[in-house]
Design brief:
This protein is α/β, with parallel strands linked by helices and 686 residues long. The chain is built from 24 helices and 21 strands. A seven-stranded parallel sheet has the order 11-12-10-13-14-9-15, with helices on both faces. A six-stranded parallel sheet has the order 16-21-20-17-19-18, with helices on both faces. The protein is globular.
C-alpha cells in the first residue's frame, strides 16, 4: 500500500507527480519519509512597537482607513495601515487586488507575515489575514514547512502528506520492545504521524527522537554487518618500491608538517602491509590532504599499478588533473595522469579509455564517470575518494570491481570536521588519520561577526577587494519559513548586489536547482576569474578551488551549525593573499551571538566541531541547519550526538547477543534491515 505511486493520491496528476519526483518522492512511502525541514509556530500577537525587521510576527490591530490599490510597473499593490496603542504598521500585498475588498476598516484582525525595513520604516509584506477566533485556534500550534520546488508549494505538499497519513498502511513495529522501553522511544507509526503534525514541541521532540534513533540504528547495524562479512581482506597489490614517491616528497618546495608526515607514514604502511587499506583522512581545508593522495598515487604507479582519484565535481577534477600534470613536470616524475569526466566528447573519452586499458595511463582522475563509464582498468590498486560522504560503499565497490587484480586499497578524504569520538562510531570500519596542523605559510583568515546594519560597509569592502583583483563568495540567507524557493532567493539577492556594487563587477549566481552542466560552467568561469562575485547557496561547500577568492560573506550565519560555517569559510584562504570571512547575524538572540563568537576567534576545525557538539541540543532543531553529513534525513551528528553514542552501544550489544539476527524477537528487525540495505547500500560509507 505505502509503495503505491504518488499519483494515486487525490489531486496529484501526471504534471504534479513530476514535480514531486523532482524532490525524490515517487511513492506514498517516500512522501511519508519526506520530513519537514522546519516548523511554523503561531506565536501570540506582538505589539507593533516591539517588532524588529527580518522576523515573522503576528500583529493584532484595526485598519485606520480602507486599503488602497496602486499600480507600479505593471504590478498591482494593495497597501493598508493598522494601528495599536504602541504604533502603526504598513501592510502590503503584491498582485492580490481582491484583498482590498475583503478588508474592512474598524474591524479587529490579526495579520501574520515577515516584517521588513524599507525607507526607514517597518512594514509587513504578504501577510496572512485571520480573525482573532481563527488565530486563537492556531495559536502555539506547529505547522510543517517542507523543502519545495518551483510549482510545488508548501500547501500542496502538506495536503498530500495529510492524505498519505490517512490512507497509509501501518508498519509493523520492528524495534525490540525492551529497547523501546529502555530509551522511552515512541511507537514507529505514532512517530511518523507526529513528525509531520505535532501538537506541540514536546510531541515533536518525542517523535523526532524515535526516527533519529532508527536512522542511526539501521545505519550502524548495516555498517557492522557488512564489515563483518568483509573482514580483513588480503590485497594482491603489495607495494615494495617507494623511491619515486620519496623523491617527489623530498623535492617539494616545502616540508610536510608533522601531521602530514605521520599520515603519509600510516598510508605507506597500509599499502605495504599485504592487507587492503581502508583509511579515512580527516583534515581541514588547506591542511594538505591532496599531497598525501598524490604521493599514494605515485607509490601505486611506481609499483606497476594504476590509481584512481574520484572527486565530486568536474571543475575540481580538472583542477586536480592540471595541478598534477604541472607538479610531475616540475619534479621530473615520469607518470602519466589522465582525466575522465562525463562532459568530455565521445572522441576524448575513447582516447582516455584506450590509454587506461593499455596501461599508458598510471593515474586516472575524474568524477562519478570513473564508475559510470565503460572503463577497463589494468590492475587498479588504489581508489581515493575526496569528500567521503559524497560516495557510498556501492560506488566504491563498483570502482574496485573494475580492477582486474583484486581488491584495491581505499583511501577516503574529508574536510568535514567531526570530533574523533563520533568519527570512530560512524567510520568504525576505517582506520582514521587526522591532519590537525596547517602548513606554516598559510595566512589565518580574518573573521568578523556583524549585524544586518553592517551590510552597506560589507558591500563597500567587497568592491575594494574586487578592485584589487580578488574574488568573493556571498552565501545567501537560508529560506525556511516562506514558500519562496532556494533559486528565487539567490536570484533576488543577486539583483540586490548588482544594484549595490559598481556595474563593472561581474556578479553571477549558483544554486542547487540548476542543472549539472550550468553549475559546472558557472564554477569554471569563477575559477578562471571571469566572475568576480558569486552568490550561492551551500552548493559551494565542495567542488572548486579558487586561491584568488579572498572574501566570503555569509548571510543569516545563525542558521548554520558551526561545523558547516567553518566548511563554508574554507572556500577562502587558499592563496597568498589575506582572506576574510564576514558572518552576518540576523538574530537578536544572545546565545546565537556567543556561538558565532567561537568561529570569530578560531580557525581550527576540530576545536570548532567539538564546541559545536557541546553547544547543540534537541532544541536546536528549530534554529540550526543540519550538518548534512552522511545523508541522514533527520538525524544530525552534532545535535543528536548523545543518541548516536547510545545507539552505538545498543548495536554492539545486540550483535554480540545475536550476530545473524536469528532470534524470534529480531525477525521484524532483520526484515527491516534487509529492506534498508537494499535501498541505502550506495550511501553506506565503508
Amino acid at each position: 500500500m505505502n509503495g503505491q505511486p504518488i499519483e494515486e493520491l487525490k489531486g496529484i496528476g501526471e504534471k504534479t507527480g513530476k514535480l514531486f519526483r523532482k524532490l525524490g518522492i515517487e511513492t506514498v512511502l517516500d512522501l511519508l519519509q519526506y520530513y519537514p525541514r522546519s516548523y511554523d509556530v503561531f506565536h501570540a500577537p506582538v505589539p507593533v512597537g516591539q517588532l524588529k525587521a527580518q522576523s515573522i510576527y503576528a500583529v493584532a490591530g484595526v485598519l485606520l482607513k480602507p486599503a488602497d490599490l496602486i499600480r507600479i510597473n505593471g504590478m498591482q499593490l494593495v497597501t493598508a495601515t493598522i494601528k495599536d496603542l504602541t504604533g502603526s504598521l504598513q501592510l502590503s500585498w503584491y498582485n492580490m487586488p481582491y484583498i482590498r475588498s475583503s478588508l474592512k476598516s474598524g474591524i479587529p484582525y490579526i495579520f501574520r507575515g515577515r516584517v521588513v525595513q524599507k525607507h526607514g520604516r517597518l512594514s509587513m509584506e504578504q501577510p496572512e489575514i485571520y480573525t482573532p477566533e481563527e488565530y486563537e485556534a492556531l495559536s502555539s500550534s506547529l505547522r510543517p514547512v517542507y523543502g519545495q520546488t518551483k510549482g510545488l508549494g508548501n500547501k500542496m505538499i502538506a495536503k498530500a502528506v495529510s492524505q498519505a497519513l490517512t490512507i497509509r498502511q501501518l508498519e509493523r513495529e520492528y524495534l525490540p520492545e525492551d529497547l523501546r522501553k529502555k530509551h522511552q522511544l515512541a511507537e514507529y507509526n505514532f512517530a511518523v504521524r507526529h513528525i509531520h503534525y505535532p501538537e506541540d514541541e514536546n510531541q515533536l521532540l518525542f517523535a523526532r527522537k524515535r526516527l533519529v534513533f532508527d536512522e542511526f540504528f539501521l545505519f550502524l547495524i548495516g555498517i557492522r554487518r557488512l564489515k563483518e562479512k568483509r573482514g580483513d581482506q588480503k590485497s594482491l597489490f603489495s607495494m615494495a618500491s617507494c623511491q619515486e614517491a620519496g623523491k617527489l616528497k623530498d623535492s617539494l618546495p616545502y616540508r610536510l608538517t608533522d601531521a602530514q608526515q605521520r599520515t603519509w607514514d600510516e598510508v605507506k604502511a597500509d599499502m605495504q602491509s599485504g592487507l587492503a587499506m581502508n583509511r579515512l583522512i580527516q583534515g581541514d581545508v588547506g591542511s594538505g590532504k591532496t599531497i598525501i593522495a598524490i604521493l599514494a598515487l605515485v607509490l601505486a604507479a611506481e609499483n606497476g599499478y594504476q590509481g584512481a582519484l574520484m572527486v565530486p565535481t568536474e571543475v575540481l577534477a580538472k583542477q586536480h588533473y592540471e595541478a598534477m600534470v604541472s607538479l610531475f613536470w616540475q619534479h621530473g616524475i615520469s607518470k602519466n595522469p589522465v582525466l575522465v569526466t562525463g562532459s568530455m566528447t565521445a572522441k576524448e573519452k575513447r582516447l582516455a579509455y584506450e590509454s587506461i586499458e593499455r596501461h599508458e595511463a598510471d593515474i586516472i582522475i575524474g568524477t562519478h564517470a570513473l564508475i559510470q563509464e565503460k572503463i577497463s582498468y589494468d590492475q587498479l590498486a588504489l581508489v581515493i575518494t575526496d569528500e567521503q560522504h559524497r560516495f557510498g560503499v556501492g560506488q566504491r565497490e563498483a570502482l574496485g570491481a573494475k580492477s582486474s587484480g583484486g581488491i584495491p586499497h581505499v583511501m577516503v578524504m574529508s574536510a568535514t570536521p567531526i570530533p574523533r569520538t563520533l568519527a570512530i562510531i560512524l567510520y568504525g570500519d576505517l582506520d582514521i588519520s587526522v591532519i590537525d596542523q596547517l602548513p606554516a605559510n598559510r595566512l589565518p583568515i580574518k573573521n568578523c561577526v556583524v549585524g544586518t546594519d553592517y551590510r552597506k560597509r560589507a558591500y563597500d569592502f567587497i568592491a575594494k577587494q574586487v578592485a584589487k583583483g580578488r574574488q568573493v563568495y556571498v552565501i545567501c540567507p537560508m529560506v525556511e519559513e516562506s514558500e519562496m524557493i532556494e533559486a528565487e532567493n539567490v536570484l533576488d539577492y543577486t539583483k540586490i548586489l548588482k544594484k549595490e556594487l559598481p556595474s563593472a563587477i561581474q556578479v553571477e549566481y549558483l544554486h542547487g536547482k540548476m542543472k549539472g552542466k550550468e553549475k559546472n560552467q558557472v564554477m569554471e568561469r569563477f575559477a578562471m576569474g571571469e566572475i568576480q562575485v558569486l552568490v550561492s547557496t551551500t552548493v559551494i561547500e565542495v567542488g572548486v578551488n579558487v586561491p584568488n577568492a579572498t572574501v566570503i560573506m555569509i548571510e543569516n550565519a545563525e542558521r548554520f551549525g558551526l561545523a558547516q560555517l567553518h566548511q563554508l569559510r574554507g572556500r577562502v584562504g587558499r592563496g597568498e593573499h589575506q582572506s576574510y570571512c564576514i558572518m552576518v547575524n540576523g538574530s537578536e538572540d544572545g546565545d546565537i551571538s556567543k556561538r558565532l563568537e567561537i568561529l570569530n576567534h578560531s580557525n581550527d576545525g576540530f576545536y570548532i566541531a567539538s564546541e559545536d557538539l557541546k553547544l547543540r541540543g534537541p532544541g536546536d532543531i528549530f534554529g540550526i541547519r543540519q550538518s548534512g553529513e552522511l545523508e541522514f534525513k533527520l538525524a544530525d551528528i552534532f545535535t543528536d550526538a548523545n543518541i548516536l553514542k547510545t545507539v552505538s552501544e545498543e548495536v554492539k550489544q545486540l550483535l554480540e547477543q545475536d550476530p545473524e539476527l536469528e532470534m524470534e524477537e529480531h525477525q521484524e528487525l532483520k526484515k527491516r534491515l534487509e529492506e534498508y540495505l537494499q535501498s541505502h547500500y550506495d550511501k553506506l560509507n565503508l
